[in-house]
UniProtKB/TrEMBL annotation:
Keywords: Amino-acid biosynthesis, Coiled coil, Histidine biosynthesis, Metal-binding, NAD, Oxidoreductase, Zinc. Transmembrane segments: none annotated. NAD(+) binds at Y130, Q192, N215. One of its GO terms (cellular component) is cytosol. Its EC number is 1.1.1.23. Binds 1 zinc ion per subunit. Catalyzes the sequential NAD-dependent oxidations of L-histidinol to L-histidinaldehyde and then to L-histidine. This is Histidinol dehydrogenase. PANTHER family: HISTIDINE BIOSYNTHESIS TRIFUNCTIONAL PROTEIN, HISTIDINOL DEHYDROGENASE HDH. It catalyses: L-histidinol + 2 NAD(+) + H2O = L-histidine + 2 NADH + 3 H(+). InterPro entries: Ald_DH/histidinol_DH, Histidinol_DH_CS, Histidinol_DH_monofunct, Hstdl_DH.
Amino acid sequence: MQIVKIDKNSDISNLVDTLLQRTPNYYDDYIKQVQNIINDVKERKDEALIDFTQRFDQVKLSKNEIKVTEEEIKEAYDKVDSDLLDIVRKAKVKIETYHMKQKQYSWFDSEEKGILLGQKISAVSWAGVYVPGGKAVYPSSVLMNVIPAVVAGVENIVMTTPPGKDGKVNPLTLVVANECGLKDIYKVGGAQAIAALAYGTETIPKVDKIVGPGNIYVALAKKAVYGHVNIDSIAGPSEILILADETANPRYIAADLLSQAEHDELASSILVTDSEEVANKVVEEINALKNELSRKEILEKSLANYGYILLVDSIDEGVKVSNEIAPEHLEIITKEPFMVMTKIKNAGAIFLGEYSPEPLGDYMAGPNHVLPTNGTAKFFSPLGVDDFIKKSSIISYSREALYELHEDIIKFADSEQLTAHAKSIKVRFEDDK
């Protein structure tokens, strides 16, 4: 990891620019390839999905094998450890409980003279959930993407995920999907899956919104279909920033930094501290701990390219650095973490204290682990129930109430030279004269 001294006069924009280069917006070389895939799926539909699955996943599927069968789901239960299934169900309850508190309801306010204003809340009709495969399998992503949609009241939820070399979906992924009530699961991954969800095929229905993380092809495909359908966000590689003072445990910090570094060679792990002693001890602990881990090669590349220890003069300066980076995951391990938290403006999820490590949020705490990355926490929020609802404004005026405003509206419309707007109001009161 690179140790960098940051003082009040330092400009961290160069560091931020380096981190932002990991975003899909910088991968122009892939855009044409992704668009070709999308166009092919739009034209050839299932036939294209079958060809791309054979090409990219080395699996030959027939049209009838694209959708997961009930028998495959039953077989998956036989392969999943019962204790693990109990843990999944426990996590599901915690995630549901948290997201139920996000639920919004329609409201209406009445005023004198026959005015009714309000807001109607409706769930989207169709949601598509993408669950990645490849370097790792993420059944937890099923919970985090599906549960908010269920709580929001989405009636139709479909899921796509790449098959393994055996032509099957990972058993735990299937079991978790079934526990969430999903029946429409398809063995399709990559940009071709996003295209299928966006435009529909003979087998996969078109949806209104696509959510879920994925590789660069998935991210760029979501970006390409946005506008034709809605999406949650353009997700980049995972990241963590830990803000720590001299009271923090270096071994805990090292373990948490490594927990993100193992995701991907492009993952970023950053420690911001005002203690040089803590910084040096964290380096020692990382060097010791990484030899015990299964994804050592990946995390070493991640730390070498995007791992930083930033030394600051004070925790307040560290807060400024953190707000500028706007991390996906922010851990605050200081003497007074709650006080520090009040100064944070930009972060996807905030973990307070040494016993609130980031993996707690990935699996069991309840808040969603689908979070804004690459600085987008400055304007995006975690995935939630709001992502699956639509809001409609309700307006009802009586003749008397409209009369009181009609001259104002006419004058306003005339000022914009929208005479038809003005006429729409005038015709309602022309008999009065």
